[in-house]
Amino acid sequence: MAIHYRCPKEELRKQMSDKRNLLSEKEKAVLDSNIFEKLIDSKEYTDANNILVYCSMGNEADTHNIICSALSDNKNVFCPVITDTKGRAMEFVRIEALSDLIPGKFGINEPQINNDSVLYKGHEGKTLIILPGLLFDRKGNRIGYGGGFYDRYIMRFKNEISDDTMKPIAIGYNFQLVSDDLTEYMGSFDFKTSMIITDKEKISI
Question: Are 166 and 160 within 8 A, CB to CB?
Fold first, then answer.
């Protein structure tokens, strides 16, 4: 997909969201399976002790199989909870099973936070954070949904990213990977990903 650089960011989001929504259930299942296989076969996944992963909904690249696989592989699995909508803040809470997830803000499945919850605070070992998005480029730039929740969250762990103990990886369908450079659209809060995994390829940044 090529981009006209005068195209507003919101229009880019809409165009890609509309395109993704055209996927049939059968087409989506095939693409999701390819992404899943590429992710779990990656060294980044194998080496990770902690998996921070979004809960997919609608026509997002599916993460339910990723969550189940990580739990089965005895990794520490954390899913996001929005804690402050206005402040665009969230936490990642450890889960033990898919059944720990219930519909939350925006209709997205999320864990509950209570006195027994384990929040990710920079656990021991290596961490992989799996990010959603609408558009990606080969430089690691990512355009999400405009809330800035993930970018603000990742900023808290910039030292871990710098020393390579935390790796941000974006997953999405290959048609979401654009040929143009998205740098022009990036703001001061936007973090680059270390890798992008699509149904067709795995791109290390």
Answer: yes
Which of 108, 115, 111, 107 has the alpha carbon at shortest distance from 94?
111
Is the torsion defined by CA of 72, 173, 105, 157 positive or negative? positive
With residue 204 as reference, give the H or E element that holds it. strand 202-204
> In the chain, where does DSSP find H-type helix?
9-20, 25-40, 43-47, 64-72, 149-155, 158-162
Residue with tokens 């430089």: 139
CA 80 from centre of chain: 10
User: What does the pLDDT read at residue 1?
Assistant: 52
Residue type for 104, please?
A: G
| 163-190 pLDDT tens trace | 999 999 999 999 999 998 888 888 767 7
Q: Tell the burial category of 2 from Cβ atoms under 10 Å away from its Cβ (0-12, 13-18, 19+).
A: exposed
Query: What's 7's DSSP letter?
Result: S
Specify whether the CB–CB gap between 171 and 35 falls below 8 A: yes
